[in-house]
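Subject: Ribosomal protein L11 methyltransferase

B.,
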Amino acid sequence: MPWLELSLTIRAEQQPRVEEALDDLGALSVTLQDADAETPDEQAIFEPGVGELPLWPTITLNALFEADCDRRGLGEALGDLLPWLEPDQLQFRDVADEDWERAWMDQFKPMPFGQRLWIYPWNIEPPADQDIVVVRLDPGLAFGSGTHPTTALCLAWLDSLDLHGKRVIDFGCGSGILAIAALKLGAASAVGVDNDPQALIASADNAERNAVADRLSVYLPEDVKADPADVFIANILAGPLGELAPTFAAAAKPGAPFAISGILQGQQDELLARYAEWFDELRVDTQEDWVRISGKRRAGTH
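Prediction pasted inline below.
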């Protein structure tokens, strides 16, 4: 069914009251975006703290209502709740019903990483080629499709390793793409860790789709009870990567290859210094504006 979308641009400090008013008037959903998106004034928000909701100075709110909602009545009611609101701040449009995830999947094409590894959407049948390793993927609601440079950097790194018989930890597993790729590349087992329960569901579903569910275990960070891994990988963000460095060091066996990504250009120097306490042979690889740091766990440090 179609929907009615109401959009208005406001200041950040007005957001709580406006969102409350929209909810009171029956909004089915309210989304926020930078009003300066795709302009020189656009501001990226990468690393909100726990419990924080950082906002842009100027915000565009988009609220969905039932298609038969009375536009004039909605505008008048919103004006009663928000007397400072000007009528010309309100914009209405009809929105066709669409399965956005499936629409995205229609555009998601097979992608190669390294020498052997390919990521295929679940709705495209891969060729019967014994020389390639295929991961079938439906990202669901979790991050990780291979299209982002950080995921691509991590997939290429996994493809470069001899993973046969190894145990892998994937911290920040998202869709499970890295853990599943490691299993398809020969790892004996993998542990996926994420603080988003939806990610654990997506990882388990994708593991089932790739016939590796019996070798993948998924956990929230507070529930992990795993021995140190033969290979460790984490694709999150620079802030948590710095904070969790001692945890990651403890999660990797001496000599274990490790890689971290989710790092923007300019953030790597601080992380290199941080990780040098526990890891050797540190190197930096880049793709677009993103960085991967890799190396090996040093023996004899805790």
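The chain has nine helices and 14 strands.

T.
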